[in-house]
Amino acid sequence: MKITRREFIKCTAASSAFMAIGVPFSFAAAKDKNVDHWVKGVCRFCGTGCGVMVGVKDKKVVTVKGDPNNHNAGFLCLKGALMTPIIYSKDRVTEPLIRKNGKLVPASWNEAMDLVASKFKDAIKKDGPTAVGYYGSGQALTEETYLASKIFKAGLNSNNVEGNPRLCMASAVGGYVTTFGKDEPCGTYDDIDAATCLFIIGSNTSECHPILFKRIAARKQSDPNVKVIVVDPRKTNTARIADVHVAFKPGTDLALLNSMAYVIIQEELDNYRFHSKYVSFMDNKKNKLTFKDYQKFLEDYTPEKAEKITGVPAATIEKIAKIFAESSATTSLWCMGINQRIRGVWANNLISNLHLLTGHIGKPGATPFSLTGQPNACGGVRDTGGLAHLLPAGRLIKKKSHRNEVEKLWGLPQDSLNPKPGYHTMAMWSALAEGKLKALLVLCTNPAHSLPNLNKYVNGMKRKDTFIALIELFKDAETVKYADVVLPPAYWCEREGVYGCSERRYALVEKAIDPPGQCKPAVDILIDFAKRVGVDPKLVPYKNSADIWDEWRAVGRPTTYNFWGITRERLRKESGIKWPCPTEDHPGTDIRYVRGKDPNIPKDHPNKYHFYGKPDGKAVIWFRPYKAAAEEPDAQYPFVLTTGRVIDHWHTGTMTMKVPELRRSFPKAYVEVNKKDAKKMDIQNGDNVLLETRRDKMVFQARVSDVCRPGLVFVPWFDANLLINKLTYDAIDPGSKQPEFKICAVKVSKA
Amino acid sequence: MTLESKTQNGNRFKKRLIIALAGIAAFGISYFIYFNLAFPEVKCAAVKHLESPDTVSDCFECHIKATPKIAQDWYESKHGIMLVKCFVCHGQPDGKGSVPYAIDPDVDATCRKCHDPSIQKMEAKYGLEPKCNGCHPFHNNSLHHKAYVKSIAKKTVE
What we know:
The complex is a heterodimer. Chain A folds into 4 domains: about 5-85, Single Sheet (N-terminal domain of TfIIb); about 95-165 and about 375-540, Rossmann fold (3-Layer(aba) Sandwich); about 170-375, Dimethylsulfoxide Reductase, domain 2, CATH 3.40.228; about 640-730, Beta Barrel (Barwin-like endoglucanases). Helices cover about 35% and strands about 20% of the residues of chain A. A 7-stranded mixed beta sheet of chain A has the order 5-4-19-18-17-6-7, with helices on both faces. In chain A, strands 24-28-25-27-26-29 form a 6-stranded mixed beta barrel. In chain A, β6 (about 130-135), α6 and β7 (about 160-165) form a beta-alpha-beta unit. The longest helix of chain A has 19 residues, at about 110-125. Chain B has helices at about 5-40, 45-50, 60-65, 70-75, 80, 85-90, 105-125, 145-155. Chain B is extended. Chain B starts with a helix and ends with a helix.
């Protein structure tokens, strides 16, 4: 008897269904028993922004599941699936705390807020508005960042509004703005499903954006002809599904990317029709040049020359360049490996160059796509202008017309906004260390753990004459040690607000439960702060976060960010909408800069592509020469140290360490050493290894493997007991001001 | 049957029992010694589960040696490629995790977190099923196991 697979499955299913009759257990009954109702939200962790349904029973969160209607189609990664215990952690701050005689003691909201307000008022009175600042986060809600930015920039006339996205996304913003004239990716996650080549560079997607990696892996699995290229000095889990893994010498990717462009032109795989019409060529001095000049510029990056710089065989460079260009649709994905560099903006430009050269843009499956690290860095901080040089919706502080436009929208007198950009993040923490910045409000981030070259900046936080008010969830967060006042916020699903993920998708995190103790939504704390510190009440007329959202919609409306159609009601019904979305019946936009797809381009526009961020409508191919890292290895410090995440932990681990499974899976940071290097130094798995940089030294347990390329060591940065950021270097990109976390020189020895 | 033969039988039974027990003990001891000698870094990892649960590391690292077949099956499965690690479904051996410890994971406590749409589809199609793994054995069927190898074959079968 022959039986096909399908028949076999049918038979088995039918017979087991038959057997199940009479079994008292039923899914439907169990579902009702375990959960009263489900509340829609977005995951609290990475920038993927997966939809989550929060299961509530007896006013308590009991479980979570993936939102089937969001882009993640119901799936969650291990962190997302295990996030319930964080809400009920014993380490939650549940009442305001004030530092008295060096110790944090409980206080009333009134007392704490009065203290904060008086310190801010004193600082402004004594040293002017630039003596106060706000340091926010890509994890705060859109409403929170928009409000804080407005309170400081409009209410207090201080442009010292920064946030941790400066440490993770600033170079991507710089890259997009210089190449296309507008921030944020032109494609979406859907492009992964249509791509025939996925070029992943400087991203361990598998551990840092697991659900996107699932999508990439599913794409690869559905069609064996789909090519995956992983370019990373570490052979990470992402490389497991790669057709080609390129482990170049850390910090030489600029040469590698230029060399790929050289090969593409040499092999005549460039799309001349596209780049002759829609692209302009520019060098670092912004001189307009030609395609011929570009060819000449690239002569320094023949595969043979690039081999000497990058350590990648010329044949491999040729191979990946050909795969990239010959595929019918190529999507590039990159993250911190490209951004956290002193030439992060340039590296971003060079990836976009390859797409503009080959025309792999504006088609399904073809896009240069920057991945974000935090759930609301894009929507919350980049879009609302929560940085020292920005105003809402891509407007710039230094542009008078932009300022005037915002002044009108905010009901301010003309020319009242401070025209001088504030301190960028590293300058802000330096200013605090030097005593120039007197009072700082920190929301939803852990800078005493996450800044590079920590010792330098922590000393500043310890100063007695400066004041740090911290809105923080957990008592054991590193920054709490240096805070003068700690205010307890409501967590994730304890209040309502919008998150905007990597693909320009705005989605609502709805309120599922009440916050514990005296915890309050950060929006309420900020409104209270504004009132007490003397901000004009007309600037903060909000009752709740929905009011702020409506104002923010209006502020974004006159720009190409236009998301007027994404109303609160729609967000409640739908699982996220991608902007631009100008009207309430608009479905949202998948592909930007293309006629018929992007609502910002008139339907009768003569050109198919229109890069409206640039005055001539043309995107830019930049001539960006290779430049080495700020601190290259030398005889004294012969290794390169890089840092990153493990899948089990997120950022500074304040949340993931509260989940027993995740904590036990990776209880401690370690150092990853290549087998060959380990053999030379006689290091075994589990041995103690001393890492020493020019800034500090620390002992880690070794994990010997072939993940790192020889000459490279890796340490994850989640561990509060082993703060690797004491060793990292704080050199910054001159354009984006983002520090080079990813590369510094280190001495490695057996301890 | 005589009384003598009965006692004889009893004696024989006792003897056999002793032999069997000795055999089990010998096997146990030799397995223990083998394990300690062959994998010095693992050192009876089972003890670790209970002794200092906060210092144990990834389950997989030890289980690839202790239960190689199961661990390898997971590694090659879709869950392995996506790094949906052991504890996401099985919880913690001392039961102090946030997921209930179970060799056979509970559908509502684990599977539903990601596979709710599929579970509902299966319910509608085949009626009520107490467990997913009745039809989809977790570690060793084509749904999970050797995700990449089998996926190509899947197409040619139909």
